[in-house]
Amino acid sequence: MAKWATLFIKIIMILLILVSILVYISLKSSLPMLNGQIRANVELPVLIERDKNGISFINAQSANDHAFALGWLHSQERFFQMDLLRRNSAGELAELFGEVALAHDKKIRVHQFRQRAKQRFNELPSSHKSLLNSYTEGVNTGLSELSVYPYEYLLLATPPKQWQQEDSFLVLFSMFMDLQDEYGEREKLLGELHARLMPDVFNFINPNGSEWDATIDEVNFSSPDIPKNSFEPAPIIDTSVPNTETAKLSTFSPFVPYDHEALKGSNSWAVTGQLTPYSSGMLANDMHLGIGVPNIWYRSSAKFSANNQDIEIHGVTLPGTPALIAGTNTHIAWGYTNSYGDWSDLIKTTLSDTDNHYLTAQGPLQFETDFESIRVKGQSPVEITIKKTIWGPVIHEEKNNLYALRWVAHDPEGVNFNLLELVYSRNVESALDIAKTLGIPAQNFTVVDTHGNAAWTIAGAIPDKLGANLSQLQWQIPQDWSQTSTKGHITWNGYLAPSDYPVVINPKSDRIWTGNSRVIGSSELNKIGNGGYALGARSRQIANNLKSRQIFTEADFLAIQLDDKAEFLTPWYEFLTHSVLPTSEINDVQKQSLTTHLSQWQNRASIDSIGYTIVRQFRIELRELLFTELFSQTLDKPTDQINYRTIRSQLEPAMWAMITQQPSHLLPERFTTWNSLFNEALNKTINQLEKQFDSLDNASWGAKNQTNIQHPLSRAIPALGWLLDMPKHQVSGDSYMPKVQGSRFGSSQRMVIAPGHEDTAIFHMPVGQSSHPLSPYFGAGHEDWINGTVSPLLPQATKYRLTLQPK
């Protein structure tokens, strides 16, 4: 019997070894080509060089050959990422992952992005269409040149589908979904609050700005005034449902989860040549997005000729598209932050006498219906029905209320490939002209040039809402567009002409900064509106840093990008240590421990600071206690699950006003005094941190703020994590400071560029170029991003050389 057991174990071991060898061979065979020559559909030979970190440099003779080569590289290195991006917006993930992705596909299909992508491609000018054709051919050639499918498809046991020209538009639509509100959730929430709260209370939690805002035109905003009314529902609300407080609070939490509080956004700033060692301006940009394996961006440099110009470019591309997204062409350097303007409207659709018709200003109209078929891996296709209005698709249907969405992403003006034209700009003025025509999710566009100029505008289509002030309340909450206002019919009137865009060029301060909060405060802000701005803490801290010096080098800009000083939490630290802790009811041991750690809090989000963790957690616990009960009073019934995350950043001024002025009518009912509220928040802070770390002594910010950067497949199959994921690191930084950093969220790249001086430019990118775990440069550059080590923008010495030869 023992012999048979030994033989069985040996057979199992041999099989495991054979399987491991087979898996290794398969993985190895799916690696991209690095050296040699291949025949390709290019006009002239294209040389692709890569350095030890895999940073590519494409030497081509034409824009079309460059597009082909870039498509080839994207496909070889990142095809699975490209596939997920197109399937994400097309609502086609279930075809790859099965029923687990069906709910997402059903929800997103209402936008019919696949259909819109085909339309947008057909509308392209011939030059752009030609470039997308070349790029698509490069993608499919690169895919066919792999010995086996990319390893992700081997694990999923599903072959990849070839790339189509319109798929590049689907990648852009995925960025719209990432950076804008594709379901109108914020507007819907504000509409519900506006209907349930007294006007002064609603204005209190939805202010037009606050003292945190730091605009480049130096317009000051004030924090909201304490309202006279409480959070009790407005009298017009039906209160027939009893306010069962206990039942509500046991199920209701307005802000979960708390992993990070930063919005999808970014930092970007610039100075004119007056403040640099050169004659050129200088730009910094770090775009804040979710970080995974691979990183969303692919670094690329290139030289080619087009439009009677010799072009040299360096920066980041988005796999699935042929354009340089952000970077430099040696004449200008440009970058983005998400603008958070008002780029969509939720329309409350009023039914006519039958369910098949709805009211409009022109009379009742019949709903248009479309049918979509969703393919599901391992199952029969699922059919869904889409209901459409003249304004857009019906996006919400609940409680006999229908809401349609009017969104820039649905219109021809919203999506195009004018990004391809930026590489030909030679100065700020021409770059601004192009930026105003870009078909991307509307961004704050910051640009500098070699002549020393610096400028800002909005890149992307801006709706013209009948000449209205987009900051007015009517554009922030759902409206009934079947009605007319005192000024006429409420609707969109096309889009602003480029000449009407807000622009700032070479301000008196010689400094421009953007950080997802209000960039300008003048009447020009009314053209942009309010789509949910970030609190201005980051922008204010960046502005303070920029005002502290008169000359900036690239290293100075990088230092600002890595700034983890806790300016935002400093008032909270002072409030906790001076107002709360001395009168708290915690025991002496706890008080001594808190006092010790708070005295060493360092005033920054450093990895060894326990005091920072305590102050941050106290603010979160206090906000939860304060708003859970106040907002629970506005719920229709205890089972309501309203998420207030979309407005949480704008609640900070109201919360600070309440805890410092302590009005009795805004104190949650279950507390007898404000001090009792503060004391419970402090106790919850201690309990939460002790539960998580066993002791306050272990609750350093680094222990809490650790990177967890994963491949999509390892999230589903944790056993693959050792192979596919990045090592975990304790990291400094947080949400309300220039160095935005969470466990899987933060700077998807950092760059500092003075155009014309690219040899001294700085660039960081997490994860590295390759998503393949056997790549010789898998994860290369990640440590520089973690540690903030100065690393170059330009590719270094060539290590790999590949030539695309004409067929």
Automatic annotation (TrEMBL):
Molecular function terms from GO: hydrolase activity, acting on carbon-nitrogen (but not peptide) bonds, in linear amides; metal ion binding
Binding site for Ca(2+): D342, D345
Co-factor binding comment: Binds 1 Ca(2+) ion per dimer.
Pfam families (UniProt xref): Penicil_amidase
Keyword terms: Calcium, Hydrolase, Membrane, Metal-binding, Transmembrane, Transmembrane helix, Zymogen
Record-annotated membrane-spanning stretches: 7-27
Active site: S266 (nucleophile)
BP GO annotations: antibiotic biosynthetic process
Protein name: Penicillin acylase family protein
